[in-house]
Amino acid sequence: MLDGYYQGALAIDSNDKYYFENLYRLYYAKMVRFAKQYVLSDEDAENIAQDTYSDVWERWSELHNHPNHLAFLLFVVKNKCIDFLRRKTTIQNIYRQLAEQQKMLFSLNLQALEQFGTDFKSENDIATAIQQALNSLPARCRDIFYKSKIEGKKHKDIAREMDISINTIETQMTIAYRKLREELKDLLPLLLIFFLD
Fold first, then answer.
1. What is the C-alpha separation between 182 and 168, in angstroms, rounded?
2. Residue 7 has what DSSP assignment?
3. Which of 27, 50, 124, 144, by CA, is between 20 and 30 Å from 178?
C-alpha cells in the first residue's frame, strides 16, 4: 500500500522511506479516528487520512524538519476535514434548494390536478385559452417559461444565455406558474401537452 507514495519521489533515501513507513504505522489509525469524528463516515475518514499521507510524502522536507510530527499531521488532516465539510455543506444546500423547488412544483401539480376537469370545450378553445394565458405573462417571465418548459432547457443554461442569476430564473418560474394557474385554472394540466405536440 505504501509503494504508491514513493512513485515519482525524487532523491528520497531508504532512511526517509523507513521513517515514513513508521509514521504511517504509528499515526494512520489515529488520523482516521480524528477525521471520523468530524466527517462521520469510515470511508471518507480513510480517504482523508490517505490523502494526508500522500500530501505529507510530497511535502516530506516540511515534515522531516518539523519539531512535532503529530501536530503537523493533525494540521493537514484538520484542513482536509474543513475542505470536505465545506464541500458537503455546499452540496447539501443545493440539494435543499432542489428539494424545496420540487416540493413547490408537486404542490402546484397537485392543485392543478385537483381542479382539472374533462368537461372542456374544443381543442381550439383550449389552445386559444392557453396562448392568451401565456401572452398575459410579463415578457421576461414568458421568455424564461418558454425556454424552461417548452424548449426544455435547464435553469443554469437559461441563466447563462440570458445573463441572469439562477435565483431570478426560479423567481420568474414561480410567478409564471402562479399567473398561469390563476388564468387557466382547471386547464393548467393541458398546458404542456398542447405546446409539446
1. 21
2. T
3. 124
Which residues are CB-contacts of 180 (< 8 A; sequence separation ≥ 6)?
A: 133, 134, 137, 145, 188, 191
Largest pairwise CA distance in the chain: 88
pLDDT value for 121? 61
Asked if residue 84 and residue 10 are part of one domain, the reply reads: yes
pLDDT in tens, the chain (197 residues): 444 443 333 334 557 788 888 889 999 999 999 999 999 999 999 999 999 999 988 888 777 777 888 888 999 999 999 999 999 998 898 888 888 888 887 887 677 667 666 555 677 777 788 888 889 999 999 999 989 888 889 999 999 999 999 889 989 988 988 888 788 776 666 665 665 44
Domain count of the fold of the chain: 2
Q: 132: domain CATH number?
A: 1.10.10.10
Residues 70 and 139 occupy one common structural domain: no
Contact by Cβ (8 Å): 175, 148: no
Q: All 3 cell numbers of residue 167?
A: 435565483
Whole domain around residue 18: which residue ranges?
3-88
Is 16 found in the same domain as 80? yes
Tell me the chain's radius of gyration from C-alpha atoms: 29
- Residues 159 and 148: their CA atoms lie apart, in Å, by 11
**How many angstroms separate the CA atoms of 6 and 14, rounded?**
11
Q: Say if residues 187 and 129 touch (Cβ distance below 8 Å).
A: yes
